[in-house]
Write a structure and sequence with these properties.
The chain contains 8 helices and 15 strands. With 261 residues, the chain is of the alpha/beta class. The protein has 2 domains: 114 residues, Rossmann fold (3-Layer(aba) Sandwich); 109 residues, Rossmann fold. The protein binds magnesium ion. The site of magnesium ion has 8 residues, from loops.
Length: 261
């Protein structure tokens, strides 16, 4: 890197740890980055665990971090709402349609299911039904904006594949003729909120992850350099045929210091 980044964004799963085991050298690497005065943000698309629980998990593994350094998709949505609130110069009303476990991430906003400014849409499991869809359609059609915690198409469960909330996000976008702001990696609104949280511009940041599309490609979309690690979900064959070219490729997070000068 031509100059040392001011901010390093780190993917969690597959980059800092696999399962419950830290990648060898990861804890030491984080320590050294801090000693160099580099700001850190820990990013995850997880939508069903609150910020404090995610931080606690990392601490149990041996990582040192402050609570506000961890930015999950719900925390990204919270930062987005705070930024919108600032632009509007008034408190915003929200309708959080999210897992009960993360509702506390949105406790600082007033909740209003009748006339919200923003609907925040996340994972609610089997709670979907047509009456909820129609209530959501009506508030969005009536002026509320949609913030989605992600827009994944499907996911793997023990019983096979299941349609994910992308189904409902895309459906609500279609019937309301409006586009959702989608949080989580690889979306630009999400990466922008992370940059803003550290008051760093894109060219002074580096994103490190094991997912060439979501971590590296997503960050590069807004001018953040991307470093791919060969751990976690990294597969050489997929990397070699990918249209995304990482700015750096390292065997693991333990080698990160060699690329940041
Ligand atoms: Mg990962």
């Amino acid at each position: 890197m031509s100059r040392t980044p001011k901010l390093i964004m780190l993917d969690l799963d597959g980059t800092l740890y696999v399962g419950k085991q830290p990648i060898p050298g990861a804890i030491e690497c984080i320590k050294q980055l801090r000693e160099r005065g580099i700001s850190l943000r820990f990013l995850t698309n997880t939508t069903t665990k609150p910020q404090d629980e995610l931080v606690a998990q990392l601490r149990v593994m041996g990582f040192t971090l402050e609570e506000d350094e961890l930015i999950s998709a719900p925390v990204g949505a919270k930062l987005e709402l705070l930024s919108l609130q600032q632009q509007l110069r008034r408190p915003v009303r929200i309708w959080p349609v999210v897992a009960d476990s993360i509702k506390l991430d949105f406790s600082e906003f007033s909740w209003d299911e009748k006339k919200p400014d923003y609907v925040v849409l996340g994972d609610i499991g089997d709670a979907w039904d047509l009456s909820l869809i129609n209530r959501l359609f009506n508030v969005i059609h009536g002026g509320a904006e949609l913030i989605a915690l992600h827009k994944n198409r499907f996911w793997q469960t023990e019983d096979g594949l299941k349609a994910d909330i992308g189904f409902f996000v895309a459906g609500l976008e279609y019937v309301s003729s409006k586009n959702a702001r989608v949080m989580g990696k690889p979306n630009r609104d999400f990466y922008q909120r992370v940059l803003d949280s550290a008051m760093v511009s894109a060219e002074d940041a580096l994103m490190v992850g094991d997912d060439i599309d979501s971590d590296v490609g997503g960050a590069q979309l807004i001018g953040i350099k991307g470093c791919l690690v060969e751990t976690g979900k990294f597969r050489r064959a997929y990397f070699e045929q990918s249209a995304v070219a990482p700015d750096y490729l390292v065997p693991s997070i333990a080698n990160l210091l060699s690329v940041i000068a």
